[in-house]
Design brief:
heterodimer, A: two-stranded antiparallel sheet, B: mainly alpha, ABC transporter involved in vitamin B12 uptake, BtuC, two-stranded antiparallel ribbon, 4 strands, globular
Amino acid sequence: MAAADRQRPPFVAMLRDSALAAVVAALLAVPLLGVRLVDNAGGLTLDYRLPLVLYAAAAVFAGRLLLSLAGHFLAPSFRDMTVSLPRMPRNSLIIVGWVLVAAAVLLPWMPFAERNLVDKLTLILIYVMLGWGLNIVVGLAGLLDLGYVAFYAIGAYAYALLSMHFGLSFWICLPLAGLMAALFGVALGFPVLRLRGDYLAIVTLGFGEIIRVVLLNWQAVTNGPNGITGIERPTLFGLSFSRAADGPTFAGFFGIEFSPVHRVYFLYYLILALALMTTLFAQRIRRLPTGRAWEALREDEIACRSLGMNPVTVKLSAFAIGASFAGLAGSFFATRQGFISPESFSFIESATILAIVVLGGMGSQIGIVLAAVLLVGLPEWFRDLSEYRMLVFGGAMVLIMLWRPQGLLSRREPTILLDPKPASAGATVP
Amino acid sequence: MPQTGIVFRGEIPARMTIDIFLQQLVNGLTLGAFYGLIALGYTMVYGIIGMINFAHGDIYMIGAFVALIGFVVLSTVGIASVPLAILIVLVLAMFFTACYGWAVERIAYRPLRGSPRLAPLISAIGMSIVLQNYVQIAQGARTKSLQPIVHGQYSIDVGQGAHVSVSLLQIIIIVLTVALMAGFTWVIRSTPLGRAQRATEQDATMAALLGVNVNRTISITFVIGASLAAVAGMMATLYYGVIDFYIGFIAGIKAFTAAVLGGIGSLPGAMLGGLAIGLIESFWPVFFDLAYRDVAVFGLLILVLIFRPTGLLGRPEIEKV
């Protein structure tokens, strides 16, 4: 087939390909794009929009042809470029990481930083933290978790309920929320961690749904779909960020004029600290026996068993620790929004977080930042697209995956090198 | 949400009598038919390329929309005969939905064959989001409703003055599903296509060496799965009369649960799992709170996987070192 194509002029094949693609596009467009159902008083009527079908077919034809032409003329020069990022020595990645941290710390002081930007960065950082937390489960321990958002929800509700009923402050609730999420992680993990990858995926997905259904229906505790409002905002060592409060306020204590921006900046630094804590933890634990056991189990469970490791405890620890970071992020989310409802914890969130981890290139901390900016940040900036936003989001997920199936930054550092000198970089420990 | 499938209105008696039992059995069988048909698509795709086709639930949703549009088009054209209309819509929905199934595989999964295991999963989730939003934009976010087309209700006397009502539509759904599943089993068992499919499932490389066109076989698997989902979609349009762009998600998760419950990769298992889920869903509200029905379904899944990790009919996987 390919050989026959090569003998003919390639353009004929390209045209034929594009025409076929256009026909398929037209077929796909006819029923759903070409006809629109309109609700009327008497029932449904139809609105024929056949030109749209033609546009779709024409667009696919042109797009396909352009891609083929580009592939034909540009591929030779691109072939070497697209294979991989330049192999950077390990140290340079660490430098990039520290530069990023410094940039993140200094950013609110830059002249171009306005409240809106900092607010969006806070949102991105939540997902960065969730990505780093999930990476412990998926990237390090190799357990596919499709219900990670459940632990995020548990953390958020744990904080909201504890502060509402017992008047506990954010700083006391934060570790409690993490603990609570970890407990749920153990409770879920204990029965199901014997399952293989995809079975585990569907069970975790089911667990995520169970939590959401319970939050929706357990009116007495969670207030159902209406959610919990008026969640207490965090304080800085007891200094409130409100205009007026019972205790001292931040503005009053430092003798500066009150501004709502202070809280935005404070929340930004708070999530930055939490996220950095997550990644530092993940990097350090890879050097500890626990982290090594996770990675070993991911690579070969049978070998680990025969060496006397107990896979259940190893997996449980990964599950619980990953969950506790989601719990911390969840209580931050609750205190930032001041309002939570089950709507914020649907499957699409789990999918987004998992996509961030996989797109980032599993195990790459910087890759996760990049993926979070792409998947969470860009749609935020393109809010004008309104209804097309999610379409673009889904499309981007597919396209990035097709473009780089290994993830954006896919190079995985071996945790241990047998040869202390990195000269034998080619022979990495699997 | 349109997915109730329960004919009781108002008070639900918290005890089981013979008529309630039979009534819920009929309803459960109907519901099981939906899940079984969708689950077949999941289990076939998983069997042949080992991936969770997350977009399959949305393929079902597209089938429902194509069917709804088909019914409205036919009514404006003026075809009054109900059996003829159902037949035409069935063929149309299967054809167009199969096109979607084929296109999804071609665009989002085929280029990723042989890449890390999670890549196709993310691509599938992305595709699912794309399909949902595409339909939302093209057809509007509001739920669409169709007047009942198939009328007819039979009341069967089960003794002691108790009655069980079975609608004509329920009979059609169950008969159609059984017929499709029988035909489908025949295709997989005794046609060249089925042989190629099973060979690819066992060992794609070996099948390719022996002259099986693996890519085409996989495409056909997606086409078959999508057209079965389209049948389920058409039946949902008729049965519930209310659809929106979001119905694929929850139906998809439950159908996948059914596939896992029956033992993923096993075709009779998918049907059995679908039936089991349908029956649980219809019997649950007789005793317990309707709101927690989904919890029951997933709870059962967890229980089955703990005690029989390969599902009801799945073959145990032997790991060789």
